[in-house]
Amino acid sequence: EPEVTQTPSHQVTQMGQEVILRCVPISNHLYFYWYRQILGQKVEFLVSFYNNEISEKSEIFDDQFSVERPDGSNFTLKIRSTKLEDSAMYFCASSDLGTGIHSPLHFGNGTRLTVT
Amino acid sequence: AQSVSQHNHHVILSEAASLELGCNYSYGGTVNLFWYVQYPGQHLQLLLKYFSGDPLVKGIKGFEAEFIKSKFSFNLRKPSVQWSDTAEYFCAVIANQGGKLIFGQGTELSVKP
Fold first, then answer.
1. CB neighbours of B11 closer than 8 A, spacing ≥ 6?
2. What is the distance of C-alpha A32 from the center of its chain?
3. Closest chain A residue by Cα to residue B108
4. pLDDT tens track, chain A, 116 positions
């Protein structure tokens, strides 16, 4: 069964540094998402992406965050200047018709980001 | 705004016990409902989903959930749990008009052998 893959599995960075989290969605999917889960808290929506542009973003997704689909396979999340509170597990997800239209999200294993 | 609440933070059961995890959502319109499971060290996996039709939905690994519209609930059940069901379970909802998936805070299930 095709999977969403994320790299790296664990990223440690210093406060103020830029990080790029990488995801390879399922190949025929058209909708892409980033979610995050701070330790002990619920999974939170960050952003959705379709047709090479952001379709929706949460209030968490401020100017420090950006997403990109640089080629036909990768989908990246960049945090420009990391803060301690960015430490979380970041999940990438993809779907083929968009959530709510008979297409559940398929999630990657997550990247654990630790900001020191 | 949509929200999802899961009643139990941590549930501890013995093998063969029956399981019911509560989930309530707040949204007045048509919703799609999901239960995801996250086994230790693994990614979120879809257990089951409800879009329309029979409100009793069967998923993988013997799980089922019942959508009760009048109660805004979508509780997850399993008649007899196994040690391998130890995981975190997340209820999630999305309005049928599209938009983001909203998760509950999760319920950690520990099954004692």
1. B19, B21, B107, B108, B109, B110
2. 8
3. A40
4. 678 999 999 999 999 999 999 999 998 888 899 999 898 788 899 999 988 999 889 999 999 999 999 887 899 999 999 999 999 999 999 888 655 554 678 888 899 999 99
Peptide bond into A8 cis (omega under 30): yes
Instruction: Quote the tokens at residue B4.
Output: 């999802």
Q: Which two tokens stand for residue B43?
A: 């990614």
Smallest CA-to-CA distance from B55 within B44, B70, B45, B40 is with: B70
Q: Which of A39, A43, A45, A95 to mutate to test the interface with B (most CBs of B within 10 A)?
A: A43
Strand-pairing partners, residue A30, are: none
d(CA B95, CA B50): 12
Residue B41, Ramachandran bin (φ over 0: left; ψ between -120 and 50: alpha; else beta): left
User: How does pLDDT run across B31-52, given as a tens digit for each residue?
Assistant: 889 999 999 878 788 899 888 8
Interchain contact, B98 vs A41, CB within 8 Å: no
B32:A108 CB<8 A: no
